Amino acid sequence: MLGRRGGGRGEPVTTWQKVGAVAVGIFAGYLLGVAIMETVDMFYATPVIPTAVTLDNNAGQGSGATKIGGKTIHSVLTSNGSPYQNFQGRIMYGTYKLVQRMPGGEKLTGFTRILHRMKPDELMDEIPTFRANPLHPQCDEWCDFPVADRPNAVKQWIDAAAKDPSMIKGAWILLLECDYVWMRPVQAPDAYDPTANGFQFMFDYIMPDHPNAVPFMVKLSGGRVDPNKIPHSGPAPVLIRYTELAALTPDWERVTADIEADPEAVKQLDWVREMYAWDIAVALHNVTLATETPPHSRLIAQPPHDLVLGDAAMCHYTWGALYFENKKEIWRWEKRDYTSREVALKVPLLIMPPQPWKDGWVLQDNLPVTRELHETLTAMIGQMNKAIIQLPDLSNSPQRT
After folding, report:
1. Which InterPro entries does the annotation name (predicted)?
2. Which one of 92, 260, 265, 359 has the largest count of C-beta atoms within 10 Å of its C-beta?
3. How far is CA 130 from CA 80, 234, 350, in A?
4. What is the pTM assigned to this prediction?
C-alpha cells in the first residue's frame, strides 16, 4: 500500500516504504514543562491587516479594493474538531501568534481555521473559524478517514470568499495542518511578480511514478497527466495564490471523491490518498510550485526524521520522538498520547527533553540522538510550551451543540 503514518489524519498505519515508522504512544498524564513567560496582552494583540482584497489577477488587485502587499500571507488550517486535532491546533495557532511578533511576522496578515463539522466546537471563539458542512457527518464523532472532507470544506470556504472578498487577507494562501509548530515567519515572494512561484514540501513517501501507483494516477487523471509530472507533495504545507487554489480545488475534490468510491484505490493509496488527489489536481492545472526538501525547505522540517530546522519556518511532528538510554525510555514526545477532550481544553505543559545532551542516547528505532537533533527537539518543545502557557483554560466551557 502507498500509505504513511498520518499527520493529523488518523491513527498510525504501517507503510511498505521505509520512512522511519515509530511506536504508538501508550500513556498520557499531566506533564510539566519549561515555559518562557510573555504577557497575555501581547500574545492576543491583533495585528493591523488589510480589510479587503479582490480575487482576480492573482490577489489583491482590482477596482475599489485595498491592494494587499504582495508578500502577505493568509494561513489556512483545516480540522474536523476532534480533541486530537484541537490539542494540536491550539498549540499551532499559539505559536503562529508568537511569530507574528518577530521581524517579518507583520506579513502574516490573516488566519482561518476551516472546521468541517456539523456543529461548532469549543475553539470557535479562540481561533478565527469558518465552519463548513462535512460530507460525512459521522466524522463529528468518529470515522476512519475524516480528511476525505477536506477538499470540499476548502471549496466551501473559497465559494464564501468569492461572495465576500474581505475574507482573504493575504496575497498568498498558506495551507497548513494542525501538527505544525511555528518557529519563525514564512517568507513569501511578491505574488504580483508573474515570475514568482509558490512552494510546497516534498514527501518522500508520495510516489506517483511508483509501479503500484501509476495505474491509479492515469485513471484518476483521465489519462491527461504523465505520472512522472505529478508532484511528490500534498495539500499542506503549500504556499499558493488564491486564484491557483480556487482553480484546482474542484479537481482536488473530484479526485478525492473518485478515490473514496474505489475500494482498490483506497487500499493502494491508503492514508495519503487525499494527498495524491491534490497532486493530480496540481498537475491537471499546470500550477507551478517549487517542491522543496529539507534542509532547504522554507516551510517545514520533520524531527526526528530531520535533524535540523534548516531553512524551514515550522516543525512538523508527525513522528514521535522517544529517547532511550541503556534500553530504558527516559523521555518521550508522542502526539498520540493526547487524544482526550480534557487535554484539548486545558493543554498541559510538555516535558522538556533531558538536559544536557548525552552521547549514547538512541531513538525508538535505535538511531542516535545527535546533539543537533536534541537541540532541534528542545527548541520545538520549548516553543510549544511558550504558547501553551498563554492558552486560556477552556475546561469549563459548555460542549457546543
Report:
1. HPAT-like, HPAT/SRGT1-like
2. 92
3. 12, 22, 29
4. 0.86
